[in-house]
Specification:
Helix content is 44%, strand content 14%. The chain is of the alpha+beta class. It folds into 2 domains: 1-127, Enolase-like, domain 1, CATH 3.30.390; 150-220. The strands form 2 sheets. Strands 3, 4, 5 and 6 form a 4-stranded antiparallel sheet that branches. Strands 1-2 form a two-stranded antiparallel ribbon. Strand 4 (62-63) and strand 5 (69-77) form a beta hairpin. Helix 3 packs across helix 5 (151-161).
């Protein structure tokens, strides 16, 4: 594996323009979509790896006494690594007590992109973000509305719940079999999801699994 230095990584990634990259807005903040960031890393540093750190119970969420939590991601390029954290947010862009699977999955992917910013990738997009969250609601504030998940959010959450099992596939045939079982279980949920949406998620799954296997081989 080619030896890389922190200076080389920063010089390579910090000069990449975000003008044409795919982004999303949440709570007035612009985030780079994680697959767009992943594609750039695979182009420049395909040996890069990432992992979401677990708590003492083997979970990817690290809870606090107020029932909010954060996720923690470690990204490495060769011998250079950065670990960063990100709260799991609700729709009001404040830390969400007892978050659902979709909120956790979203936080994990944004945390991964945030870790890449510490290598230089789109670092300027994080530079102006406030270090503190907005003030928490007081007793006089109206209660937040109940969160109703869209079908797309339910699908993303269900995918996250089955992610570990899906990504344990050991061959192409095993991958197809696991995905077929996942698709059947989704249909049994009777969620208003189109075949095109399932096909798009299947494509994402194949690409992610391929990247995972490549990263695992690079570690050996």
């Amino acid at each position: 594996m080619e030896q890389v230095t922190p200076a080389h990584i920063w010089a390579t990634l910090s000069t990449i323009s975000s003008d044409s990259v795919s982004t999303e807005k949440f709570g007035g903040i612009t985030y780079v979509k994680w697959m767009a960031a992943h594609a750039i890393m695979m182009k420049h540093f395909p040996q890069y790896t990432w992992e979401f750190l677990q708590d003492e119970h083997g979970k990817h969420t690290h809870f606090f006494p107020d029932k909010t939590c954060e996720v923690r991601c470690r990204v490495a390029v060769g011998d250079v690594s950065h670990t960063t954290t990100l709260p799991v947010y609700g729709k009001s862009n404040t830390a969400q007590p007892n978050p659902n699977a979709h909120q956790v999955n979203t936080a994990k992917q944004r945390c991964r992109v945030k870790a890449l910013a510490e290598f230089g990738l789109f670092h300027h997009m994080w530079s102006d973000l406030p270090l503190e969250e907005p003030d928490a609601p007081t007793a006089a504030d109206p209660k937040p509305e109940a969160v109703t998940q869209t079908p797309e959010e339910r699908l993303a959450g269900y995918y996250e719940l089955h992610r570990e099992k899906l990504f344990s596939a050991t061959s192409t045939e095993d991958m197809k079999a696991k995905w077929a079982r996942f698709e059947n279980s989704v249909r049994n949920l009777k969620v208003d999801i189109t075949e095109d949406q399932l096909a798009e998620l299947a494509k994402e799954y194949r690409e992610d699994l391929k990247a995972l296997k490549k990263n695992q081989k690079a570690k050996k």
